[in-house]
Design goal:
- The protein is an all-alpha fold.
- It has a domain of 151 residues: MetI-like (MetI-like fold, Orthogonal Bundle).
- It has twelve helices and no strands.
- The longest helix has 35 residues.
- The protein starts with a helix and ends with a helix.
């Protein structure tokens, strides 16, 4: 196409700036309308004052709370949060393995696979907060309810990801194991698991990251962790305590993110 014909084609192209301008004005109108619903807090000041209080609390955290090694200190609460996330991921992973193999269409008959997938879908449907409220009614408030919550949430996601990894395997490997006379358990143990371990491990690390963030807010419903002290401090407008808790949580998430990134790179790329 010559340069003249190309310019002519561009000139004949439909003008879309009117539609883009209309979309921009509609978005601005929606933002202005939604901002009208913002209300000031009569007891704690305006929203800007609350934001300034949180930022000031992060810059000036309470040292006695940040470095307290007792059960009310930030280090203990962060350790409890990590324990909930780690054990919840571990229990969920152990229970997800049989779900994943029973849900893979290239391992079991399709009716069994569809039934297991339906169960996994039902588990994934319920939000973490609902699981937390349910288990608190059963076990009472505490870290154990948070562990059970994280386990159920992990089962839903890990089973789905594991099933996809299993179904992406080369069918030739399974056929060669069949020709060698291997049964189903031998195929899983010697032919499938060695190939799936890097993918499984990477998925577990990613789920642990998610569980760590979820466990930090499960305390809002009484399921242990650092969420409950954070909520109490914010409700009483103790911004320095809020800053200490948030600062500890930020540092924890950054450290875990750095370690998890290194582990994922080592597992997937050998770096």
């Amino acid at each position: 196409m010559s340069e003249k014909n190309y310019v002519s084609t561009l000139e004949k192209a439909p003008r879309t700036w009117v539609g883009q301008l209309a979309a921009l004005l509609a978005c601005l109108a929606l933002l202005a309308w939604s901002s009208s619903a913002v209300q000031s807090n009569s007891t704690g000041g305006s929203g800007l004052a609350v934001a300034r209080g949180i930022i000031s609390g992060i810059l000036h955290p309470t040292p006695s709370l940040l470095f307290n090694l007792g059960t009310n200190g930030v280090p203990y609460l962060l350790f409890e949060t990590i324990a909930i996330a780690f054990l919840g991921t571990l229990v969920g992973a152990v229970l997800s393995v049989p779900f994943s193999f029973l849900g893979a269409k290239n391992i079991v008959p399709r009716p069994v696979s569809y039934l297991v997938r339906l169960c996994v879908m039902a588990i994934r449907t319920i939000p973490p907060f609902v699981y937390g409220l349910m288990f608190i009614m059963v076990t009472g408030p505490g870290a154990f309810a948070g562990l059970l919550t994280m386990s159920c949430c992990s089962i839903g996601m890990l089973s789905k990801m594991f099933i996809e990894s299993i179904e992406e395997l080369d069918r030739g490997i399974l056929e060669s194991l069949d020709a060698a006379g291997c049964n189903t358990f031998d195929k899983i143990r010697y032919g499938i698991l060695p190939q799936l371990m890097p993918s499984f491990s990477s998925t577990l690390i990613y789920r642990f990251d998610m569980n760590l963030r979820d466990a930090s807010v499960l305390g809002l419903v009484g399921a242990g962790g650092i969420g409950a002290p954070l909520m109490f401090a914010m409700n009483s407008y103790r911004w320095n305590d809020v800053g200490a808790i948030l600062l500890g949580l930020i540092i924890l998430v950054l450290i875990v993110e750095w370690f998890s990134s290194r582990l994922r790179n080592r597992l997937m790329r050998g770096e």
